[in-house]
Automatic annotation (TrEMBL):
PANTHER family: PROTEIN RSEC. It comes from the Bacteria. Keywords: Membrane, Transmembrane, Transmembrane helix. The chain crosses the membrane at residues 82-102, 108-128. This is SoxR reducing system RseC family protein. It comes from Halomonas koreensis. Pfam families: RseC_MucC (PF04246).
Length: 144
C-alpha cells in the first residue's frame, strides 16, 4: 500500500464538527524556487492567485490560524485522475472511431468526438457527485 500524500493547511473558519482550511501551496520542485526550469513556475503563479479552500471534519475543536496536516491516499489521487481524464477521453475516442467505422466523413467524426467528450464530462459529473467523499483529504489527528 502506498503512503498518503500529506499537505499543510491553515484553519480559516471553524464550524461545529470541523473547519474550513486553506492549503499552504508550495512549488512542485526546487526549480521554481530557483527561478528556472520547466515552465511550471508560470502555471504555479496563475494558481497562486486563488488559494485552495477545503472543508474538513474534526473530532477536536480547531482555532482560526491553527496549522493542520491533511492526508489524501495516493490511490484516491490516481483514481480521480483516471476518472477525470480517462472517461471523457475514452468516450470521445469511441465516438470518433464509431463514426469513422460507420463511414462518416471528417465533420461527422469531429462531431462524434465532441459528443463523446460531452458524454464523458456528463458521466464524470455524475461520478463526482456519487463519490466525492472518496476523494476528500482527511485531517491527520491530532492536529499539529
Amino acid at each position: 500500500m502506498s503512503d498518503p500524500l500529506v499537505e499543510s493547511a491553515r484553519v480559516i473558519e471553524p464550524f461545529d464538527g470541523g473547519a474550513w482550511v486553506e492549503v499552504l501551496r508550495r512549488p512542485a520542485c526546487g526549480g521554481c524556487a530557483a527561478r528556472g526550469g520547466c515552465g511550471t513556475r508560470t502555471l504555479a503563479r496563475w494558481g497562486a492567485a486563488r488559494p485552495l479552500r477545503l472543508a474538513v471534519s474534526s473530532r477536536q475543536p480547531l482555532a482560526i490560524g491553527q496549522e493542520v496536516r491533511l492526508a489524501l491516499p495516493a490511490r484516491a489521487l490516481t483514481g480521480a485522475s483516471l476518472w477525470a481524464y480517462g472517461l471523457p477521453l475514452a468516450l470521445a475516442l469511441a465516438g470518433a472511431l464509431l463514426a469513422e467505422a460507420l463511414g462518416g466523413d471528417d465533420p461527422v467524426v469531429a462531431l462524434a468526438f465532441a459528443a463523446g467528450l460531452g458524454a464523458g464530462l456528463l458521466g464524470l459529473g455524475a461520478h463526482a457527485r456519487r463519490a466525492s467523499g472518496r476523494y476528500r483529504p482527511r485531517l491527520l489527528e491530532p492536529p499539529c
